[in-house]
Write a structure and sequence with these properties.
Helices cover 38% and strands 14% of the residues. The chain is of the alpha/beta class and 390 residues long. The chain folds into 2 domains: 246 residues, Aspartate Aminotransferase, domain 2 (3-Layer(aba) Sandwich), CATH 3.40.640.10; 133 residues, Aspartate Aminotransferase, domain 1, CATH 3.90.1150. Helix 3 runs parallel beside helix 11 and helix 4 crosses helix 10. It is globular and about 75 Å long. It binds pyridoxal-5'-phosphate.
Length: 390
């Protein structure tokens, strides 16, 4: 096809063609563990890498292949790998590319599960990590450093890290740069366009969009993908199932319009709430006063559907959350339904208090994932609950 296709069009069409045998328009769920390879010689050739073909769904599955092809296109990557969860994607990237003695420079705050992985399992394998920042990278660099790992926007304080600076530093120092792109989604940011080596997602969030799948995605170059697939998918077995791949293919078709609505409503809510007397500080990169606003304008198409604010104490956060009527108190994010949580008491509970405090993840912090409901209704709910605070 010769026409130039925009992101929204590619989100609908890429990676999916009518199925060859029946012409099924929606990509079928190939719910099978193995594939008949026909005869001894062909089976042997596929396993030896001399012929391509499906043999076993841990290694490759046609529904998952469609999903990976769509993600390659949406992330402007050479290759993509789907995983059974965001954590499976993150741990597979680290276990595939790092070895004992290596160090990660982490630009956080990070999702609590990632911080726990770095603090526990990777530490047991003598892979260390150090909290750093874009400004401190040069000071923190050591001969052991092998990877820079960043989230942007960060969970839960919506800090923005400069992708171009991270990529340049990584290239200059022969480090692998990894970005957790979950909060932005490929609609808002494509880290590889800025020179980042690996973009990964909890696909549980905006990529699914409907809160009914747990999954992960890695988008990267062919050479990193070969290593990650071989360790993460073949050896660790952190592969996604075909039904989950189907649900993500379905969710991705509406990613662009969902993100437009999430961003529009979050922006209205952030501007409406920023001066509320019960709110000490509100984090939203779309606000001019946000420290990362100018960088966000450069590397994000819009400012996202997540925001967080500090109500000053655990008591206020608890009261506020318990009085919400429309927002569901739940972890996760990026769903069509609006969700609210206290990160310090849930998603970030495994992170030591001193780290949380240094990162501004206080007991009074509340995180909102703005859904696609009517923004007036969401504002009413937030307003009534804030008004009840003593
Ligand atoms: C930013 C971020 N990265 C990674 C993860 C882990 O993803 P999953 O829950 O799909 O394993 C999460 C989960 O909330 C997250 O918020």
């Amino acid at each position: 096809m010769s026409i130039k296709k925009s992101f929204s069009t590619r989100a609908v069409h890429s990676g999916q063609k009518p199925e060859k045998i029946t012409g099924a328009h929606a990509t079928p769920i190939f719910q099978t563990s193995s594939f008949a390879y026909g005869n001894y010689e062909r089976g042997n050739k596929i396993f030896a890498g001399q012929e391509t073909g499906f043999v076993y769904s841990r290694i490759a599955n046609p529904t998952t292949l469609s999903l990976e092809a769509k993600m390659v296109d949406l992330e402007n990557a050479e290759a993509a790998i789907a995983f059974s969860s965001g954590m499976a994607a993150i741990s597979s990237v680290c276990l595939s590319l790092l070895k004992p003695g290596d160090q990660i420079l982490a630009l956080g705050p990070l999702y609590g599960g990632t911080e726990a992985l770095f603090l526990n399992l990777l530490a047991q394998l003598d892979i260390s990590y150090k909290e750093s920042s874009v400004e401190r990278l040069a000071d923190d660099l050591s001969p052991k450093t092998k990877m820079i790992y960043a989230e942007t926007p960060t969970n839960p304080t919506l800090k923005i890290h400069d992708l171009s600076k991270i990529a340049k530093f990584a290239k200059d120092n022969e480090l692998i740069s990894v970005v957790d792109n979950t909060f932005a989604s490929p609609y808002l940011t494509r880290p590889l366009d800025f020179g980042i080596d690996i973009s990964l997602h909890s696909a549980t969030k905006y990529i699914s969009g409907h809160g009914d799948v747990v999954a992960g995605i890695v988008a990267t170059t062919k050479s990193y993908a070969d290593k990650i697939r071989s360790a993460g998918v073949k050896q660790i077995g952190a592969n996604i199932g075909p039904f989950e791949s189907y649900l993500l293919l379905r969710g991705l078709k509406t990613l662009a319009i969902r993100m437009q609505r999430h961003c529009e409503s979050a922006n209205i809510i952030a501007h409406e709430l920023k001066n509320h007397k019960a709110i000490k500080v509100l984090h939203y990169p779309g606000l001019k006063e946000h420290a990362g606003h100018e960088i966000a304008k450069k590397q994000m198409l819009d400012f996202g559907g997540m925001l967080s604010f500090d109500l000053g104490s655990k008591k206020s956060a608890q009261e506020f959350l318990d009085n919400l009527e429309l927002f569901t108190q739940a972890v996760s994010l990026g769903d069509v339904d609006s969700l609210a949580t206290s990160p310090a008491s849930t998603t970030h509970l495994a992170v030591p208090l001193d780290i949380l405090e240094a990162q501004g993840v206080s007991p009074g912090l509340v995180r909102l994932s703005i859904g696609i409901e009517s923004v007036e209704d969401l504002l009413d709910d937030l307003g009534q609950s804030l008004a009840k605070l003593g």
